[in-house]
Amino acid sequence: MQELDWIGNRARLTPEAEAVADAARKKTWSYAELNQRSTAAAAWLLKRGIQKGDRVALLAPNHICYFDLFFACAKIGAIFVPINWRLAGEEIEYILQDCTPKLAGVHPSFRGRMEDIPFLQTIYFAVEREEYLENTEWIPVEAKLSSLDPLAIIYTGGTTGKAKGVVLSYQSIFYNAVNTIMSWNLTSHDVTITYMPLFHTGGLNALSIPLLLIGGKVVLADDYRPEEAVRYLIDYQCTIILLVPTMYHMMIRTEVFQKQTFSPSIVFLSGGAPCPLEIYAEFERKGLQFKEGYGLTEAGPNNFYMDLQKVHGKRGSVGQPMLLNEVKIIRTDGSETAPDETGELLLKGKHLFTSYWNNAEATAEVLHFGWLHTGDLARRDRDGFYYIAGRKKDMIITGGENVYPLEVEHWISSLPQVSETAVVGIPDAKWGEKVTAFIVLQNKTSLTLEELKQHCQVKLGSYKIPKEIIFLKELPKTPVGKIDKNQLKQFGMKQV
To answer: Do both 374 and 414 map to the same domain?
Structure first.
């Protein structure tokens, strides 16, 4: 269907406009060039027998080949499967065996990984040679395409078991893009830099695809270095950027960030994990626009809009539901919560995923009557603004009381000695679970348990105050950069 050839239609409207830039290679492609590349890639795939519904995998850093192959798959009805290169060889092999791609592109920087993944050796092609661009003869697509057909499978991090393949249809990706454009007021004048890995929904769907549909510009960057990131923001005149809290944590501590005068029109977005309030304070000190979002691979990932004029009075809020999706919070009995009451967050809209690939049981666990049960805890204040309280499975029950780790983490992070922190519940014979804080200190600082308790007593109830501190040089992260609380809990149990 011509209407599903998004990049072809965009190239028809604004062929000469700059679409994608590679920051490291200092190369830029127009919309006409991006469409030519994806058209050639589509013809190349068809010549190699790729048909509607076949999977095409990609193992690469942030590189133009992501858009070549994504839009090529969109043109012919194939299913694009970006692979998380941070995973171990066995984990990647599991994903490939699960989705069974007919072809897989591999970037030279990961050529050494081939030895660990025998499955790849029979189906891979080298993306650095861009051999898929050599064919310029178009082959007509005979398969009929529908907006409900699957377009991409993005695998979740798999911290609670085997990774699950989240199936996103044309409709899912399109409605997330349109909802984002309309709710966030994106225009063709917007420019973003994509450091979030493109194998992750935050890299591909949060800003990259929405901006390419509206005619904006996407700057690709890899190997995040905060000083360099600040320079790229200025050089490319970025108007909006999405990073995870860890990246912002690194950025605000650089000399170049402290000295740089940014355009006040830049919007800094934080996603992927709840953002420490100290980061809000640092951007506010510099007079910069900073706000937080919420999403997940199964929904968007964009679901909320935060009015920049309301951030100061609603610090920590992800905002209000966007234009084209519904949100509600429920108790364990399924009834909706009252204002300021914490419950499970549910989402609904045409941006939701279709299913988990080859996993009907897991799909049925989270999708009920059109509502996605996220497994995340949230509350809504009396003005209709939403706040994420953390994962349902991360809630700590100590002495019969519920403790939401994020509340404790935010307050601990306000201590100047603290660089990073995570709070988990460790099994305990007396309390059921013992509130335990894992802390990374700033260089040349110290903190005692008594000092921490005194600080917490100012704002937190006694049952929320950590009963133990474990100091680490760094917090373990999942393959997508989130703090791995499973690892922390296992480590804490060994210390008891």
So the answer is: no
